[in-house]
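thread from #wetlab-drylab

HS: before we spend reagent money on co-crystallization trials with zinc ion, can we at least see a predicted complex? here's what I'd submit
DV: go for it
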Amino acid sequence: MSYPVRGEEPAIIEALKVRALPEGSCDKLLEFLRLYRDAVQMVVDRVWGIDEGLSKKRLHRLFYDDLVNLGFRAHHAKEVYMYAKSLVESARGNSGRKPVLRKLSARIDKYDYKLDLDSMALTLKLHNSYEVRLRLIAPRERVEKFRGWSNYELVVKYDGKSFWVSIYLRRTVKTVKPRTVTTIDLNFDNVTLAVFTLDGRPLKLKRFKTPHRRVLTHRIWIERIQKRYPRSWRFIKGVRRAIERHGKRIRNISWDYAHKLGDLVAKLALKYCSLIVFEDLEKLRENGKRDKRLNKRLGLWFYRRMQFCIEYEARERNLEAVKVDPRGTSSKCPRCGGRLVECGYRVLRCRRCGFVGDRDVIATVNLYRKYVFKYSRCGVLGVALNAPKPDEDPSGVRGNRYEAMTISIFMNLYES
Ligand SMILES: [Zn+2]
């Protein structure tokens, strides 16, 4: 599992999962894992009844001394109560039943282990100042990839037969300076993508079909079954199986598609050395009115998944991805900022200036303008962008220039 990290500095985190052989006896390591599990359970039991927020500070005050008295190191203690906290919180959100831990697994802070990928050796610091040395079993080439990455946390597990270690490694992404901007508009039926030069000329327009309609069919099947057995569907094996089958199809279709799309888009963006601009889906939700373009029954998760995959693939290729507020991207005229009204299938028309255009293409153009507006003002690009700003007066050279650009986008669209 790997994922891009949101925040200031773009980074990629990946887990290197390998089998680990303890040198000598594994008694102490097993003892540590059992102690760790029991300590997590103890914290879970004690905070289960507490409803108010569990701050790190409070957990520290409640449990630190006890955990250290059990023989844990300072960072072990922190990992134990934070892990317990996350278990409690997710249990409350899901089943509502108190978690009971059976598996032997421990999260270990970077201060409590030493890793040497050259000799494939790992030293873990355990309770009561014990240490254990483990040899990591993995082919060279799998490890080679992580040279120069920084490690920060690991999880050690025992599955009854062997020990497994997942080392979390992090690489900051040195993004390349973009030469173009790619905007991506996600819709129920399609994903529309447009590449612009930094001064606003369109270079490429592409449309991908989404499998959302197929997904929706499975969704509707599930709803139908649940409606027919409103109370009992959870308990009848055959019914539950049928629901699971549809659910599995949905997951497969959506992951498959998101991966392929991410790869295609990132490849294209790399070819154009492009910065990628998305709609901020969180803003879409905040804006209250769910966008008509996204089907309500599917929810936002599908769109998030597509963005996630595109963003990940882009970062793998050292490309930057940013988000802009999607408000108005498919309701404002890209030429004059006037209100657009629907006139026919997927076609919008401006009430003020008469501009007519394809809805999705208009959205990509508006996303580009939003990006320019947001970033050229802060001087992030450091390039003179003479593309028109949103809501600009319809008169003037820029408007005409913009019209030419939009027209050429449309020509491109209908040519391809
Ligand atoms: Zn207009």
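DV: Residues 237-271 form the longest helix (35 residues).
HS: ok that's useful, forwarding to the group
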